[in-house]
Amino acid sequence: MSLLADKTQQTQSVSQGSHTDSAAAFVPDQSRAERTTSYAVSDFPVPSGREEEWRFTPVDRLQALFAETSGTPLRREESLPEGVTVSTLSKDEWQGSGAPKPADRAAVIAAAQAEAITVLDVPAEAELTEPVRLVLTGEGALAHGHTLVRVGNFAKATIVLRHEGDAQYSELLTVVAGDGSDVTVVTVQEWADSALHLGQHDVVVGRDAKVRHIAVTLGGGIVRLNTNASYAGPGGSFEGLGVYFADAGQHQEHRLFVDHEAPHCHSNVEYKGALQGETAHTVWVGDVLIRAAAEGTDTYELNRNLILTDGARADSVPNLEIETGEIAGAGHASATGRFDDQQLFYLQARGIDEDTARRLVVRGFFASIVGRIGVPEVEEHLMEAIDRELEATA
């Protein structure tokens, strides 16, 4: 029997401040296993905003990305360690590869309209000492992207993908981690305020492989990322980490789906966000499905949001769907709260001015995730960007 658990049933508050139940009362009436995936655009109607998966998103501003219209590719710069190669793949070859299918209209259009599928290959047993770096820059036009990352068996690699500039961009990114591999994927969204970005990121975890997917979202008018993890064999581990900071007028939405269909696999999801300014809006939706065959599963998901000013709104919806009682553990937590005045008072009582005290509290809030990114240049840049955001508020 399937157990659908919503936030009101199994969530505990894990930080000080008010607990948000803005979306907690909704229990999905459809299993995640039943949602549509397809290579055909016709299988995905244009979203109206009434659908469960689009109900938080300002779809009226995204019509260009729902249309079957070709665009201009983003400008790409790359830095490849020795042994890493880049090639292209035809759509027929991709569809025959067994890679996950698109799961919404924006993703299937990205797959259909992208000029070519960019394939990045890390050879088996390689141990990269430097990250693979890809920088995608928009120049104000409509754009579609489709990238496949293949990491060979027992390889170790870090891939950093940066998005910047201005664009109306839809993308499909697939990461296939070979058996026994150790892969970190960092995706940074630092768009101009007018940019629109819809992305589907699929992660396939091989047998006994370890994959970390880290999403850092700091810019863009609308950024909506769907990260989906699945397992190609037992013993795999997936960690989904995220940091986001929304300003006035920005909509940042992160959705995760971890599909436990193989036994004895592990997943851990932790996202933290801060919001400031009128109409700043963030959405986090975490879905975990533990199928009947996935005995020995151990999973946990956590989302925390820090509201720095009036007028900002954070929606947080964790869900567990469990089809077997033979698991090691499963849980989730979600909390949203305002800035802790007691922490500010404590620091100011020791001679620290208010602006510096606020910066220290926010840095501490994000530190547990930022320190696990593992790429010093990204960690330093992220903290500098957060400082700039706080200076603007001050």
UniProtKB/TrEMBL annotation:
Q: Where is the SUF system FeS cluster assembly SufBD core domain?
A: 136-365
Biological process (GO) annotations?
iron-sulfur cluster assembly
Which stretches are tagged as biased composition: Polar residues?
A: 7-21
Sequence segments annotated as region (Disordered): 1-51
SUPFAM superfamilies, A to Z: Stabilizer of iron transporter SufD (SSF101960)
Protein family membership: Belongs to the iron-sulfur cluster assembly SufBD family.
Under what name is this protein listed? Answer: ABC transporter permease
Organism, per UniProt? Knoellia sinensis KCTC 19936
